[in-house]
Backbone:
């Protein structure tokens, strides 16, 4: 299943002219639509997109995600990973990159293949999404930011909730949804979710809200590829991000590939923030990734970690830590929700219009904060929005959805956020990208109406 | 002159240019100031007492209403003194029964309610029985309780228990059910197990409403116990009311009614005070 040939990176660069993602859009359109008009709209868009790709948006030389963007549009898909530097430093946390060349052998983080979801049966059946196909690649230490854009009721939430494994959207009626090459079994902390509605637990203070996941699950850290090495009785584990375990902590190893080392160990020493050692009897091994976990974290430790995240999302430990949700504004509540998700360092973060209910100035501040956090932690983010500006500003990619039944109409590659939201949105070139996408949506909508 | 007309219709400005808001008595659903509320509340009580005093003035023959039906305010006030002897004993005996009955109902009703609210299979299984129990008029339960538990303490406690447990149960089911699904989903995506969601999300968020239900049921139970105490009981407020009736001490009965009402109010007030203190995150309690 990790055969590189099986995933042809349909959304990847060259990006500009590659056309419909996964072959979904133009071909199997529902009868109500006017295929000719849609094809014309897409053609017009592609032409425009070519021009957009040529815009050389100024980007700082030191921009952490810049190398990806530096790939000329004409380059082949395989050229991307090799253009990545071995070390990307984002903010305070250095992010270790794994040896190059391997990523393409890994399955995509999220892959949808001809996914359809139908509710009900017979005459009352309603198809929310139909034949949705896309694949988001797994670049270690550098997650993609995928904006999902489309009209209301086009099944954007269905897609995100399918990835989250939440009922009743989960499971799909047909097709396959794979996360890391494996089907989803249900909701889990590796796929964090931020909802539009405020979901801070009303009975918990800010700090207790943020610590909720750790309280339930303990702390889990991915083991870096080739990160578990055992020689002469000492097991050395390198985690993909700082783990924060202290010597003496009881740690569980799970899912270590290539090595039979699963089970409990006690941390002997912590040579660096991302390393830990333990004495372990058993065969000498070198192993691929897995998970290392402390099942229960002491309350003081939990609060320490939560406080770190309070500051990270732009709240103040002094002022806000002990406040209850009813004392917070909408923006602050969403900051809490984001911190609560990020503290678990999930691979994937699903955001269902998280800023939809916020006023514009708060919204742009939250966007900037989110970009910064994403760069530091590099999860793969799926972000639903109604705002084209927001989608273009935040996203690496935009999945453009069409209306009922929802399907991926187009995968659009957009320039990275290289300045604060406000500044970037003032740039005429940014506005041109937004305008281009708006035109496509307008044309598609009018062609839909004409087809009615 | 059109301008002059508009100006005269506008509220009279207090400071130059700043319009005055309409007064509270002309604003729909506006509360009067606190002092006004106290004064008008007290005024109505005073008015009723005066009427009471007028209709009971004079002796048994000259009074408009016979003192055997409505004694004068003075006589009722005087009877408070004669009550004091066994009043404390009566209050304690009655409260003990109510507390015990409510406590039993709370344990069974809340625990079962939490499970039924979380696991809809249990909920569907228990629903018909609960609906049946809720539909039985309280008074109709009493003869059965007498047959089952004779006339001892057990009968009174069980009467209260059976009278309120179905309501505590359904209120608890409701309280658990109305916790928005989003909270459950959020907890799931944060890695909480079903058990953790129950104990860390559903129960804490439902608890304020469950306590509110218990508070209401406590007030009702105080009413039911009077009924149970009417039959062969050594002590309690209900017994005192009954004895007074037999001995023609109507003044004392009026005095007791005031005391019982005050007691019910105080208990409610105290529970509510603690509820507000403990669940500060609920603004609506």
Residues:
């Amino acid at each position: 299943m990790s055969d590189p040939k099986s995933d042809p990176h349909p959304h990847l660069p060259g990006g500009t002219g590659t056309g419909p993602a996964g072959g979904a859009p133009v071909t199997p359109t529902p009868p109500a639509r006017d295929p000719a008009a849609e094809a014309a709209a897409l053609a017009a868009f592609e032409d425009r997109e070519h021009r957009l790709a040529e815009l050389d948006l100024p980007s700082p030389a030191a921009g952490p995600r810049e190398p990806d963007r530096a790939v000329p549009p004409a380059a082949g898909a395989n050229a991307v990973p090799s253009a990545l530097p071995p070390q990307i430093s984002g903010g305070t946390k250095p992010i270790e990159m794994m040896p190059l060349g391997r990523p393409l052998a890994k399955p995509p983080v999220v892959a949808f293949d001809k996914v359809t979801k139908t509710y009900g049966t017979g005459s009352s059946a309603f198809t929310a999404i139909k034949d949705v196909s896309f694949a988001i690649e797994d670049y270690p230490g550098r997650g993609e930011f995928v904006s999902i854009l489309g009209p209301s009721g086009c099944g954007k939430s269905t897609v995100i909730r399918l990835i989250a494994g939440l009922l009743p959207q989960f499971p799909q009626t047909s097709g396959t949804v794979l996360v890391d090459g494996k089907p989803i079994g249900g909701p889990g902390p590796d796929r964090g979710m931020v909802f539009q509605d405020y979901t801070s637990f009303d009975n918990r203070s800010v700090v207790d809200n943020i610590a909720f996941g750790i309280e339930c699950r303990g702390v889990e850290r991915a083991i870096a590829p080739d990160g578990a090495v055992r020689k002469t009785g000492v097991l050395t584990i390198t985690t993909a991000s700082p783990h924060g375990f202290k010597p003496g902590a009881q740690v569980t190893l799970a899912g270590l590939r290539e090595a039979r080392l699963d089970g409990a160990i006690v941390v002997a020493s912590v040579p660096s923030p991302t390393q830990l050692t333990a004495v372990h009897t058993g065969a000498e091994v070198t192993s691929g990734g897995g998970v290392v976990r402390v099942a229960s974290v002491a309350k003081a430790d939990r609060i320490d970690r939560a406080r770190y995240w309070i500051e990270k999302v732009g709240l103040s430990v002094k002022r806000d830590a002990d406040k209850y949700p009813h004392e917070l504004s909408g923006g602050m509540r969403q900051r809490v929700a984001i911190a609560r998700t990020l503290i678990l360092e999930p691979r994937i973060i699903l955001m269902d219009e998280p800023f939809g209910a916020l006023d514009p100035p708060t919204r742009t501040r939250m966007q900037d904060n989110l970009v910064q956090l994403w760069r530091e932690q590099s999860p793969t983010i799926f972000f639903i929005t109604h705002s084209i500006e927001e989608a273009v500003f935040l996203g690496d990619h935009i999945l453009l959805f069409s209306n009922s039944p929802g399907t991926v109409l187009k995968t659009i590659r957009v320039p990275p956020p290289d300045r604060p939201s406000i500044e970037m949105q003032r740039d005429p070139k940014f506005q041109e990208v937004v305008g281009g996408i708006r035109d496509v949506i307008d044309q598609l909508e009018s062609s839909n109406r004409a087809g009615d | 002159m059109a301008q002059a007309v508009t100006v005269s219709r506008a509220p009279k400005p207090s400071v130059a240019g700043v319009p005055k808001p309409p007064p509270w008595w002309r604003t729909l659903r506006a509360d009067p100031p606190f002092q006004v509320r106290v004064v008008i509340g007290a005024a109505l009580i005073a008015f009723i007492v005066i009427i009471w005093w007028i209709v009971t003035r004079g002796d048994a023959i000259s009074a408009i209403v016979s003192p055997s039906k409505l004694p004068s305010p003075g006589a009722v006030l005087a009877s408070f003194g004669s009550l004091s002897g066994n009043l404390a004993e009566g209050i304690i005996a009655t409260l003990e029964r109510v507390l015990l009955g409510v406590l039993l109902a709370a344990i069974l009703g809340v625990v079962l309610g939490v499970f039924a609210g979380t696991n809809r299979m249990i909920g569907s299984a228990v629903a018909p029985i609960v609906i049946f129990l809720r539909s039985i008029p309280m008074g109709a339960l009493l003869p059965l309780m007498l047959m089952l538990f004779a006339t001892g303490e057990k009968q009174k406690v069980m009467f209260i228990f059976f009278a309120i447990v179905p309501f505590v149960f359904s209120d608890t089911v409701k309280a658990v059910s109305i916790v928005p699904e989003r909270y459950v989903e959020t907890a799931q995506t944060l890695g909480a197990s079903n058990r953790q969601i129950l104990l860390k999300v559903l129960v804490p968020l439902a608890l304020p409403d469950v306590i509110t239900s218990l508070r209401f049921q406590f007030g009702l139970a105080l009413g039911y116990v009077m009924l149970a105490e009417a039959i062969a009981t050594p002590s309690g407020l209900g017994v005192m009311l009954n004895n007074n009736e037999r001995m023609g001490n109507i003044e004392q009965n009026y005095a007791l009614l005031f005391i019982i009402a005050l007691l019910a109010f105080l208990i409610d007030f105290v529970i509510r005070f603690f509820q507000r203190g403990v669940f500060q995150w609920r603004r609506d309690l």
